[in-house]
Amino acid sequence: MHSFFRRVWTYRFHYVLIVPALIWILVFKLLPFLFATRVPFIHFQLHKGIIGSEWAGMSNLTKMFANPAFRSAFMNTVLIKGGYILICAVAALVLALAVSALRSRKLRTALTTLLLVPYFIPSIIFAYMALVLVSSTQSPPLSIQGLVWGDVRLFQPMLILLEVLKTCGIPVVIALAAIGSRHAAVRQREGEAIPSFVRMNVIPATRAITAFMVLQLSTLLTTNFELIHLLNNPLVRSVGDTLDIYMFREGMMGLNVSGAGTVWLIQFIVQLLLTGLAYFLIRGAFLKDLFSGYADTNELQDVQKGGRIVGIAVSVLFALIALVPMYFLFIHPFTVQSNSGYSLAALLERSNFTLYLVFSMAAAIAGLLMTVALAYPMTVPDLPGRGLYKGFLIAVMLMGSGTAMHEYLLAGSLGMLNTIFPTMLFGILTVIHAFVLSAIFNSKYADLKQQASAEKRGEMRTFFSLFISKVWKPLLTLGMLQFVSLWNSYYSSFLYIANKDRFSPITQIWSLLSSADPKQRIPLGDPLLLQYGAIVALLPLILLIVFRKWLTSEVLLGEIRRL
Question: Transmembrane ranges (predicted)?
Answer without folding.
Answer: 12-35, 82-102, 114-134, 154-179, 209-231, 262-282, 309-333, 353-376, 388-408, 420-441, 462-484, 529-547
